[in-house]
Specification:
four-stranded mixed β-sheet; alpha+beta
Length: about 120
């Protein structure tokens, strides 16, 4: 009985640690802006720099989606997101909890940039 309990405990610990290292901030970005996105930046909300473009391809056309992946060791949850579109305009969304977001759809509603986060 002790072996079964120990095996169960080890399985629970390993499963829990796998979830922590799985890149909980990973998300799918969906472009419904009506424009082509040229660059995507994400930065921890408490950071003052954007770093490198994380789009992972040349552009993201309207209606397309892309998976954004994070390092396994990243543990920050609240991030800012910035896009640069084909017209070189940039739009920023602040304080997105990427540990809870699996999908972010960018669009314009009433001529205002909006994000639907699921």
């Amino acid at each position: 009985m002790k072996r079964v309990a120990l095996a169960l405990l080890v399985a629970v610990v390993l499963a829990g640690s796998a979830a922590v290292f799985a890149g909980d901030q990973n998300f799918t970005l969906i472009n419904k802006t009506g424009l082509t996105i040229d660059k995507v930046y994400v930065s921890p909300a408490n950071d003052n720099s954007w770093g490198e473009d994380v789009l992972g391809r040349d552009t993201l056309a309207n209606g397309e989606k892309v998976d954004i992946k994070f390092s396994r060791k990243e543990d920050e949850c609240v991030w800012d997101l910035k896009i640069v579109d084909e017209e070189k305009d940039d739009v920023v969304w602040e304080d997105i909890n990427l540990c809870k977001a699996e999908e972010i759809t960018l669009l314009y509603q009433n001529k205002r940039p909006t994000a639907i986060i699921k």
